[in-house]
Amino acid sequence: MDLLQKCAQEFDRLVPYQYHIIIGRKGKTLEFTISFDRADFHHLAGLHKLRDNVRLQTGKRIDIMKEILNGQITYNNIKQSIYFHEMAPRLLPLSQLELFLDSNEIIFRYNSKANIFSVIRADYLLQNDYEGTPVYLFLAQRSGSDTQVCRTFFPKSGKDYAEGQPRYTLLKKEKRNLITGETFIQYDRLTCSI
């Protein structure tokens, strides 16, 4: 299967879900919910980096996602970009995004002042490993909503974005299916059951 299409399909599987997460540090807790929208895929996949592809730069993000899902935009299409190398490292880890989110790895409250040369604006940073390389997922509040959006996602390639960030302990994580109403408790340290 086309790698870009596989990434889009994996992301599309997450659209009807939300993750509700409770974290703690020094006796204080924080709660947040991650939600998904098909338009979010564009930035996560790094398609915005392909500056020489007019369709990807000017098209509606949700339409581009649909074109990837139905095979109109393929891995071979995007590979033609001279900027492909800037986004390519994201794709293999992105094809495992649900596994990344289902794991109970490291969560940080993101402080952009600790990375003053970065343009990333986020509230939280999740870190996990993919084939031995740290991968970062930045979360930020979705405009007009109280949920967090997956803002950007990429493997470590030099800079350690976790350095200097306050690390939190995962206390509880639920995965909710918004269509069926089912809630799956993936981790619960608050009631001592996992």
Q: What does the secondary structure layout of this molecule look like, with pairings?
A:
Layout: H1 3-14, E1 17-25, E2 28-34, H2 41-44, H3 54-58, H4 61-69, H5 75-79, H6 84-94, H7 97-102, E3 106-109, E4 124-130, E5 133-141, E6 148-155, E7 167-177, E8 183-188
Antiparallel strand pairs: 1-2, 1-7, 3-4, 3-7, 4-5, 5-6, 7-8
Characterise this structure.
The protein contains seven helices and eight strands. The chain has helices at 3-14, 41-44, 54-58, 61-69, 75-79, 84-94, 97-102; strands spanning 17-25, 28-34, 106-109, 124-130, 133-141, 148-155, 167-177, 183-188. The termini are far apart. By secondary structure, it is an alpha+beta fold.
Summarize it:
It is built from seven helices and eight strands, in the order αββααααααββββββ.
Q: Percent of residues in beta strands?
A: 25-35%
- Point out poorly predicted stretches: none
Largest beta-sheet characterization: 8 strands, antiparallel
Overall 3D geometry?
globular
- Output mean pLDDT: 92
Cα distance spanning the termini: 35 Å
The count of strands amounts to 8
Helix vs. strand class: alpha+beta
> What is Rg?
17 Å
In N-to-C order, the SSE pattern is HEEHHHHHHEEEEEE
The level of helicity is 25-40%
Number of helices: 7
Main traits of this protein?
194 residues, alpha+beta, 8-stranded antiparallel beta sheet, 8 strands, 27% helix, 31% strand
